[in-house]
């Protein structure tokens, strides 16, 4: 039988739960972007964001959780406001400021940011709450008014010359670029076409200029995906980059094209026109396909004789005569090591082949994540006498994922941290639980990666010039890591500075939806 005290407890508990649900719904309904960061974790990662923040930034929740807020500034790291934020966080204080941020598609937006600390019963700052408003429109109005006041007189004087120079300049670019370029008016009528376009698509300038794009070549260019680009996407997104279109032209055959569209916002006769760049990547893609086929066939063909050779070497190691010299044993051991390296290389090539053909298989099962990390580190540590691998943090959870593939990712990140930091003596691995994700960061004190190379570091076969000169490899390890994490609906990224080391991090959903 329930007592009055129990009834009061349940009543109070229900009220608390209702208040919490109401608060959560209210935050998600807010038009202000709201995030919460965990000050107790290294690098103060984001552990919560509402729907408005996703809309403002253009990133999804899975791409936000686990990152430090500075990822919104991309490479625009010299703003003085960043120092103000760092000082406020370090001192556990509130601050209000306006800062330049960038959406996922690269668009700049001005962010009015309010940061407030959250303290526990001991007055220790445990979290920070950030409330954000997109004030780009207001900033644009302010900047426009200032610019108009400053340059109005000079614009009047230079207008005629500027228009003539712009026209000549644009015409020169269009004619000299080794890429098909079209200038379209707002009704998609061709204003000009360069020589590369007429040669590639076997048309004349006379039958192109002045004709609607969709009517070119007896309506050959009436392509549904091209209409989608110009009618649906371009008006809401300026510019549109690397939009892939495949089409079978009746007279010149199948073409695979990469389209880039830009609005031309010069005054006068060029206002509201569209620059359409068309790159024919048909042959390039075919070469890539042949290369993938070759890698797949070569890897499979090498696997069988390599397995046989390994078997013979292992048998020879077991049958070394007692009177065999030390030199013989060392040579046999080195042969075995090189065979293992070759076996790993072929395995990676096979992984690339499976990824490219969409045949990579995941077998997701719950496993102890912290235990997996510790065991993987122990194996790497036993083979590396010059580096001490330190593990900090924990998640204390089971993760549903393909354990063997996640071990492969962690192995690659640890091996790289050791390989590319030969003069360092420590590698740090940090584990944390951020919201509904688990996060792992591997930090080294190696040579670091330039900002330009960071953009390409996860591309297939990419290797930085200085790395290529000093360290052997094919540039497929990080590509495989990214594909594995992406197939688990997680994210992987790098933060680095030349000469100061690198931190590779990845997140995985704890309970994936598929």
TrEMBL record:
<dbReference type="Pfam" id="PF00512">
    <property type="entry name" value="HisKA"/>
</dbReference>
<dbReference type="InterPro" id="IPR035965">
    <property type="entry name" value="PAS-like_dom_sf"/>
</dbReference>
<keyword id="KW-0902">Two-component regulatory system</keyword>
<dbReference type="InterPro" id="IPR001610">
    <property type="entry name" value="PAC"/>
</dbReference>
<feature type="domain" description="PAS">
    <location>
        <begin position="166"/>
        <end position="237"/>
    </location>
</feature>
<dbReference type="InterPro" id="IPR003661">
    <property type="entry name" value="HisK_dim/P_dom"/>
</dbReference>
<dbReference type="InterPro" id="IPR000700">
    <property type="entry name" value="PAS-assoc_C"/>
</dbReference>
<keyword id="KW-0812">Transmembrane</keyword>
<feature type="domain" description="PAC">
    <location>
        <begin position="95"/>
        <end position="147"/>
    </location>
</feature>
<keyword id="KW-0808">Transferase</keyword>
<dbReference type="GO" id="GO:0007234">
    <property type="term" value="P:osmosensory signaling via phosphorelay pathway"/>
</dbReference>
<keyword id="KW-0597">Phosphoprotein</keyword>
<dbReference type="InterPro" id="IPR003594">
    <property type="entry name" value="HATPase_dom"/>
</dbReference>
<feature type="domain" description="Histidine kinase">
    <location>
        <begin position="297"/>
        <end position="512"/>
    </location>
</feature>
<dbReference type="InterPro" id="IPR004358">
    <property type="entry name" value="Sig_transdc_His_kin-like_C"/>
</dbReference>
<keyword id="KW-0472">Membrane</keyword>
<protein>
    <recommendedName>
        <fullName>histidine kinase</fullName>
        <ecNumber>2.7.13.3</ecNumber>
    </recommendedName>
</protein>
<dbReference type="InterPro" id="IPR036097">
    <property type="entry name" value="HisK_dim/P_sf"/>
</dbReference>
<dbReference type="InterPro" id="IPR036890">
    <property type="entry name" value="HATPase_C_sf"/>
</dbReference>
<dbReference type="Pfam" id="PF13426">
    <property type="entry name" value="PAS_9"/>
</dbReference>
<keyword id="KW-0418">Kinase</keyword>
<dbReference type="GO" id="GO:0005524">
    <property type="term" value="F:ATP binding"/>
</dbReference>
<dbReference type="InterPro" id="IPR005467">
    <property type="entry name" value="His_kinase_dom"/>
</dbReference>
<dbReference type="InterPro" id="IPR000014">
    <property type="entry name" value="PAS"/>
</dbReference>
<dbReference type="Pfam" id="PF02518">
    <property type="entry name" value="HATPase_c"/>
</dbReference>
<dbReference type="GO" id="GO:0000155">
    <property type="term" value="F:phosphorelay sensor kinase activity"/>
</dbReference>
<keyword id="KW-1133">Transmembrane helix</keyword>
<feature type="domain" description="PAS">
    <location>
        <begin position="19"/>
        <end position="92"/>
    </location>
</feature>
<dbReference type="InterPro" id="IPR050351">
    <property type="entry name" value="BphY/WalK/GraS-like"/>
</dbReference>
<keyword id="KW-0067">ATP-binding</keyword>
<dbReference type="GO" id="GO:0016020">
    <property type="term" value="C:membrane"/>
</dbReference>
<dbReference type="GO" id="GO:0000156">
    <property type="term" value="F:phosphorelay response regulator activity"/>
</dbReference>
<dbReference type="GO" id="GO:0030295">
    <property type="term" value="F:protein kinase activator activity"/>
</dbReference>
<keyword id="KW-0547">Nucleotide-binding</keyword>
